[in-house]
């Protein structure tokens, strides 16, 4: 009998310890305090670096950013090795079902409008491209004016975006190349005439100092979309007006399942300060920050 009670007591003790331990882990993190890991689609890294830096400076929080391709980000997210991610798409039904089985409803926060940018060497005479020609090339057809397409990574969000646009499941082997990073694409296009690079716009609007000379050596092409009669560059105005054909929304996907840093960081990025950071980065904020005007009833002459 004593042995039985001792065994029961031990089980209760272990259960209580584990429950307290898990409770402590959760209690150590609030919406503005603690430590968290943020998975970031590699095409969106520059602007998220700025967001994390400002967030950490304002709050008692530490966010570890892990940069991966879109496929790797989603795989890591659903494996529950991290619960917060920045993506250029929402979760699909199969991915949502995984979290539903865990009794978690992912919170999706739109934060910005980005653009898939097409770049070409500065020495090229062509600074415009019809998206129909790009789609034709990706479907294996000979297309005058396109020598080749260069992507950052076969698993990247830009590849997925362009594949969907072209109606194909994978990039063709002929005439289409992939490297490891957006910077490698920019360098390659800078050094090779006639090659069109496909990169996230943010890598061009916020280049690292060592990359500036390579960015200066390329041109961001203007694109004519389907059912359009003119060509438009991927600037904030054209993205806002829906004129640029290769625009896409950016989301923070929070799958923590509790009120932690994921909620606080998403609210920060979607708020006034975070949206101003996005505006300064060259992307389009999901909510354009208002401009405050000071109206005076009397004009005074400051020059005396």
Automatic annotation (TrEMBL):
Organism phylogeny: Bacteria, Pseudomonadati, Bacteroidota, Flavobacteriia, Flavobacteriales
Keyword field contains Magnesium: no
Protein's name in the database: Phosphate ABC transporter substrate-binding protein
Domain PBP: 34-271
Pfam families for this protein: PBP_like_2
InterPro entries the record matches: PBP_domain, Phosphate_ABC_transporter
Keywords from the UniProt entry: Signal
The keyword Signal appears for this protein: yes
Organism for this UniProt entry: Flavobacterium ammonificans
Domain of life per record: Bacteria
């Amino acid at each position: 009998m004593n042995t039985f009670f001792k065994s029961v007591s031990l089980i209760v003790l272990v259960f209580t310890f584990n429950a307290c331990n898990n409770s402590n882990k959760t209690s150590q993190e609030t919406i503005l305090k603690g430590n968290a890991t943020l998975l970031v689609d590699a095409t969106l890294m520059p602007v998220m670096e700025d967001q994390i830096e400002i967030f950490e400076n304002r709050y008692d929080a530490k966010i570890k950013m892990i940069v991966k391709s879109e496929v790797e980000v989603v795989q890591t997210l659903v494996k529950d090795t991290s619960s917060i991610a920045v993506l250029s798409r929402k979760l699909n039904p199969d991915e949502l079902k995984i979290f539903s089985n865990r009794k978690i409803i992912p919170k999706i926060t739109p934060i910005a409008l980005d653009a898939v940018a097409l770049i070409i060497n500065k020495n090229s005479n062509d600074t415009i491209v019809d998206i129909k020609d790009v789609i034709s090339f990706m479907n294996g057809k000979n297309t005058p004016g396109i020598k080749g397409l260069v992507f950052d990574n076969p698993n990247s969000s830009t590849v997925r975006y362009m594949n969907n646009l072209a109606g194909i499941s994978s990039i063709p082997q002929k005439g289409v190349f992939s490297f490891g990073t957006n910077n490698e694409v920019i360098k390659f296009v800078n050094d090779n005439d006639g090659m069109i690079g496909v990169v996230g716009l943010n890598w061009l609007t916020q280049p690292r100092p060592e990359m500036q000379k390579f960015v200066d050596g390329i041109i961001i092409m203007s694109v004519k979309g389907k059912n359009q009669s003119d060509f438009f560059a991927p600037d904030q105005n054209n993205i806002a007006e829906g004129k640029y054909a290769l625009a896409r929304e950016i989301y923070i996907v929070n799958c923590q399942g509790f009120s932690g840093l994921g909620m606080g960081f998403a609210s920060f990025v979607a708020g006034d300060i975070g949206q101003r950071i996005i505006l300064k980065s060259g992307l389009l904020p999901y909510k354009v920050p208002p401009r405050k005007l000071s109206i005076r009833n009397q004009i005074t002459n400051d020059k005396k």
